[in-house]
From TrEMBL:
This is Uncharacterized protein. The keyword Heme applies. It comes from Zooxanthella nutricula. Signal peptide: none annotated. The lineage of its organism: Eukaryota, Sar, Alveolata, Dinophyceae, Peridiniales. Keywords: Heme, Iron, Metal-binding. The keyword Metal-binding applies. GO terms for biological process: heme catabolic process; heme oxidation; response to oxidative stress. GO terms for molecular function: heme binding; heme oxygenase (decyclizing) activity; metal ion binding. Heme b binds at residues 10, 17, 126.
Amino acid sequence: DGVGLARKLKLGTQEAHKAAETVHFVHEFIKGKVPREVYAQMVVNFFYVYEALEEALDRCADHPMVDPLHFPDELCRAEALARDAEFFCGAAWRDTTAPSAVTKEYVERVRRVSEDAPELLVPHAYTRYLGDLSGGQVLKRAAVR
């Protein structure tokens, strides 16, 4: 039909993207009003999200829909997030913190999808990485402040 996957995903996620941009947390974060401990918990939660997603993508790397888009070296975020969690929470962060209940549900869902319908990891990973990496550039400037 002439419309590539990236374009379809962009069009299909426009509404969700707009909603994410208007979340109260994002506005407060950009203004520098998010407490350090809240930010630290977000980093911990993102670690568990990316750990689950990257493990799922690795497990499903031979799937015909996943293989062409599997770039673990270029896209891996879990390691960097683990370092960030250590910075914000200390060396024993894995023992002193835990993912939120919603994060645990999210992680379990990613694991189930990887077992039941691995092809669904592709649009999810696209959205997750692109949203966090491009949107993260805006948030990075706020975090540095």
